[in-house]
Amino acid sequence: MNPKVGVVIPNYNYESYVVQAVESVLRQTYRNIDVVVVDDGSTDESLRVLERFGSEIKVISQVNKGVSSARNAGVEAVEGEILAFLDSDDVWRPTKIERQVEKFMADPKVGLVHTGVVDIDAEGHPIREHLEGASGDAGRRLVELKPAINGGCSSAAVQRELFEKVGGFDTDLSTSADWDLWVRICAEAQAAYVGEVLLEYRIHGSNMHSNVPRMESEMFHALGKAVASGLVSNPSSSFGS
Fold first, then answer.
1. Which ranges of 135-176 does DSSP label H, i.e. alpha helix?
2. Which of 63, 95, 157, 208 is deepest in the core (most CB within 10 A)?
């Protein structure tokens, strides 16, 4: 009972943070992992600083297509029955993947596992913790725009089978792409929550979510998709059976 976890790190011009992100993955207590960094057309020194990791990770470089395209490309390149996503400006604490795998192994109907989060500033100093999180029918809370899945993409891990079934990240979305994917996944399977701070989510001037007009526009689009598709129903019991 030692499933491989595929870790996907999209990166765009975060040479100052991406090394810390990769190091946090390589320090995980859970060792059966495969790591890919997808550089989405960076114009800084990101590719150069990643050379220090050698064969410990895979690095893919593509022309700039957006974060959702980079994440989907990473999934295609990485091995693992479980997928975990880490934005290149965030940091995992060492037991994150271990604790998430435990949740997947405990219940085969779980399709997504997320964790507690602490916001940190640009220098890595803690700001505030977020320990509220949904289990079970998390999709209902998501479409009601209530707190549900913490930490955006960097917190959640998902079953690859389910990721592929729902079609991966919507490449028309960026700031709301994670919310949109979690809604689709939670319509198919249960969520589980690890109530520990296992993700350090960095707050700085370049965060995608600081672009409020774009986020509002994308949320309207994503919510419209969810309503049109009827994704407010209870999760199916068929996944994982």
1. 138-143, 160-166
2. 157
> What distance in Å separates the CA atoms of residue 60 and residue 40, rounded to the nearest whole number?
9
Q: Work out the pLDDT band at 223, boundaries 50, 70, 90.
A: low
Span of 32-41, 92-101, 148-157, 216-225 with lowest mean pLDDT: 216-225
Specify the pTM. 0.87
Q: Count each helix (H run) and each strand (E run) in the chain, helices first.
A: 8, 9
Q: Work out the angle between the directed axes of helices 67-77 and 177-186 (0-180°, nearest 10).
A: 50
How far apart are alpha carbons 35 and 84 in whole angstroms? 10
């479409």: which residue's tokens? Answer: 143
Nearest-CA neighbor of 83 among 132, 190, 156? 156
C-alpha–C-alpha distance, residues 234 and 192, integer Å: 15
Q: Rounded to 5 degrees, what angle do the CA atoms 133, 138, 141 make?
A: 90
Give residue 155's pLDDT.
97
Q: What is the pLDDT of residue 174?
A: 86
Name the DSSP letter for residue 169: -
- Under 8 Å CB-to-CB from 98, ≥6 apart: which residues? 28, 29, 30
Q: Residue 9 in contact with residue 88, Cβ under 8 Å?
A: yes
At residue 140, the pLDDT reads 81
Rg of the Cα atoms in the chain: 17
Neighbours of 94 (CB within 10 A): 13
Task: Residue 232: count other Cβ atoms within 10 Å of its Cβ.
Answer: 14
Tell me whether strands 82-85 and 157-159 are parallel, antiparallel or unpaired: antiparallel
